[in-house]
Amino acid sequence: MKMAKLLLLGDIGVGKTSLARRLVLDDFNGLYKATIGTDLYRYDVVPSPIDTPFQFIIWDTDGNFGDTIFEHVYAKRSDAALVVGDATRRTSLDAALARVEGFLAAFPGRPASLIVNKIDMLGPGVAPELPEAAHNLGIPIIFTSAKTGHHVRDAFHDAAAVIARRS
Fold first, then answer.
1. Radius of gyration (Cα) for the chain, nearest Å?
2. Which domain holds residue 10?
3. Could you give the number of structural domains in the chain?
4. Average pLDDT of the segment spanning 1-17
5. Is 64 left (phi over 0), alpha (psi -120 to 50) or beta?
6. How many helices (H) and strands (E) would you count in the chain?
7. CATH number of the domain bearing residue 51
8. Which residues contact 95 (CB under 8 A, 6 or more apart)?
């Protein structure tokens, strides 16, 4: 079975754990409990982007690491990253963009996506205010809602497909 290590990065409270729980358990819990260190999840990507079974080991990281995450063992040998920002907090989107840039610099050639979570909290037709530089990085920007499940599976499956193509 092909296994890939996927990092979930982002500030505290942007919904990293909620995204992982929505994907793996199809569950959402509105009670906030901060991740301390790292939580691990396994997820079988079905359908697999390759002919053999494909599994993610998802590393849900503590938002307190900030940019130092790339110096920790948690980030070593990662195959990709989903960097999460909160659609309702511009500062978290700025931090997510900086973390994407940090990941791409620390791990050249490995894919990253910017995940704009909590879009369910915006009014109808309201788009989050993204940093201008987000569009210049040439990475996927995926708008998700861990609460409703909107595009959550797509974000992880897109990452799996990129990893499979590059392997």
1. 15
2. 2-166
3. 1
4. 94
5. alpha
6. 3, 6
7. 3.40.50.300
8. 10, 11, 66, 85
Nearest residue to 146 via CA among 69, 60, 38, 45: 60
Give the tens place of pLDDT for each residue, 47-88. 999 889 999 999 998 776 656 666 666 677 899 999 999 999
Stated as kind and residue range, the H or E segment containing 112 is: strand 112-117
Q: What's the whole-number mean pLDDT along residues 151-160?
A: 97
- Half-sphere exposure of residue 69: CA atoms within 13 angstroms, side-chain side: 32
Cα angle 9, 4, 152 (rounded to 5 degrees) comes to: 55
Give me the sign of the Cα torsion angle 83, 135, 104, 155: positive
Q: Please state the φ and ψ torsions of residue 130, each to the nearest 5 degrees.
A: -90, 145
149: left (phi over 0), alpha (psi -120 to 50) or beta: left
> If you count them, how many residues does the chain have?
167
Residue 64, both tokens: 């307190």
pLDDT value at residue 72:
60
Model-level pTM? 0.92
What six digits make up the tokens of 29?
């819990």
Would you give the DSSP letter of residue 76? T
